[in-house]
Amino acid sequence: MILSENLHRHVAYLTEEIGVRLAGSEQEKQAAEYIKARMLEYVPDCLIETFPVNCCKVEKEELSALVDGQWKKYDTILFNGAPGTGGKTIETELVYFDAHQDYQRKDISFVSGKAVIHWGLSFGSEENYRRMMEAKPACLLMVDTRYTSQIPLGDGMFPAYVKAHGAIPTVNVAFFDAWELCSKKAEKIRLNVEGEAVPAVSYNVIATIPGTLEEPLCFYAGGHLDTQSRTVGADDNAIGCAVMVELARVLSQKKLRHTVKLIAFGAEEQLSAGSSAYVRRHREEVEKYGRFMWNFDSCASAVGWNNFWINVNDTLHRALTDCYHEHDVYYNEIRGAEPTIDLFPLTACGVPGISMHRRNCETGTFFHHRPANALENISTDVAAQIANAALDLIERLDKEEYDDKFSIDPDLVQAVKDGWEGTFGGWEG
Ligand SMILES: [Zn+2]
Questions:
Q1: How far is the CA of 297 from the centre of ligand 1 (A)?
Q2: Ligand 1 centre and the CA of 183: distance in Å?
Q3: What mean pLDDT is predicted for residues 160-189?
Q4: How far is the CA of 228 from the centre of ligand 1 (A)?
């Protein structure tokens, strides 16, 4: 049985001893080594694989705006994967751009040379991103419209978009700061960001518990090591890594027919870079033997409800529903191919699965990518209950009757294919 106090101990170490764990940073490496050492206490086969990422190294960030005739300072966080201003100050006019509607305009050249208040974090599509880059604004001030806040949050660019269309200085500003800039009709801004994303290395920690069959299939479970800037990520996602260690402890005592690989992925916050690196490197293994994935990401909000992404066929769906309900775990279900979670690259290899996530407000979690994503706001009891349901499901799906029953929801096959090609850049990345 997965124990809440063990989860608590691992999360405390990752968040309070190590702290913020940006992809490619020394702290992410420390987290990888901690998880590997804990895994090795139970599982002899545990190794670290590395892959290239960009690590955001920012020395200085300054945004000020001319409001009511005075220059006033505002807090920002540079997007991971975006360039800074090379230490130079950009001074330019502000223009408001609503990400929900303004992409419908045929002509968006009015942003050219300006600082764009991008109302909404999402570009909506690669085509919109391409048009924005082509219009050549001076910089983007991105606003999170999901949860209104006094502070900015850390976020990142889609690497495949940047590779295809380039990038300009892109920072997050707090919702209410952006509100003030708009409502007080700030005339101009000055932005100076020294530092940017530099080439670095990230880590996947992989523990393998071999199955007893001669040619076993393979189950995967995952959680991610890294965080965004200025957040220790207790819920996102120290808890997922803690669950991996607990699964290693419990599953190492059982003799399952099929192999289980428990993976603490690096660089999830750079659009699932660790899980895509894993499937690109082990494509044959995943496509041939991969049968199911349990992804744990942000599944411990102390208050709130479960929101699970599920992409499985009807047979698996029944097994899954029965099992979780027997464990008193109920959830809102999203049947979809969500690209921003580590389940997606495995699904691109045909592996069905579930990603366990909780919400505490309609638009997500109020501490998403923010400092309040900390131990005091999560419940390891809640996470343990979810993980114990998942553990039971692993044992149930290990039975022979399911051996030929693993496939993804046929309605999602095309969307997964398109997402892998479009958002991830396919097998070449
Ligand atoms: Zn996450």
A1: 5
A2: 33
A3: 95
A4: 9
Centroid of ligand 1 to alpha carbon of 152 (angstroms) = 17
Distance 127 CA to ligand 1 centre (A): 26
Closest Cα partner for 25 from 58, 70, 63? 58
The distance of Cα 384 from the centroid of its chain, to the nearest Å, equals: 21
9-21: average pLDDT: 98
Give me ligand 1 centre to Cα 215, in Å: 33
CATH number, domain 4-45+210-428, options 3.40.630.10, 3.40.50.10490, 2.40.128.110, 3.40.630.30: 3.40.630.10
Helix H or strand E encompassing 252: none
pLDDT (0 to 100) of residue 19 = 98
Per-residue confidence at 100, pLDDT binned at 50, 70, 90? very high
Going from the Cα of 54 to the center of ligand 1, the distance in angstroms, rounded, reads: 17
- C-alpha R_g of the chain: 22
- The CA distance from 111 to 183, in Å, is 19
The Å distance, Cα 71 to ligand 1 centre, comes to 36
- Report how far apart the first and last C-alpha atoms of the chain are (Å, whole number): 39
- 3-class SS at 326? helix
Q: Which residues pair with 116 in a beta bridge?
A: 95, 140
Q: How far is the CA of 350 from the centre of ligand 1 (A)?
A: 22
- Domain residue limits, the chain: 4-45+210-428, 57-197
Q: Report the pLDDT value the prediction gives residue 54, as an integer from 0 to 100.
A: 87
User: How would you label 133-142 residue by residue, b for 16+ Cβ within 10 Å and e otherwise?
Assistant: bebebbbbbb
Q: How far is the CA of 45 from the centre of ligand 1 (A)?
A: 26
- pLDDT at position 393 is 98
Q: If you average pLDDT over every residue of the chain, what do you get?
A: 96
pTM above 0.90, yes or no: yes
Q: Ligand 1 centre from 18 Cα, in Å?
A: 17
Cα(312) to centroid(ligand 1), Å: 21
Q: Please tell me the distance between residue 69's alpha carbon and the centre of ligand 1 in angstroms.
A: 41
DSSP 109-138: GGGTTSEEEEESS--SSHHHHHHHHHT--S
Q: In this predicted structure, what is the pLDDT of residue 422?
A: 87
Q: How far away, in angstroms, is 369 Cα from ligand 1 center? A: 9
DSSP-derived secondary structure letter, 110: G
The fold adopted by the segment(s) 57-197 is Glucose Oxidase; domain 1 (3.50.30)
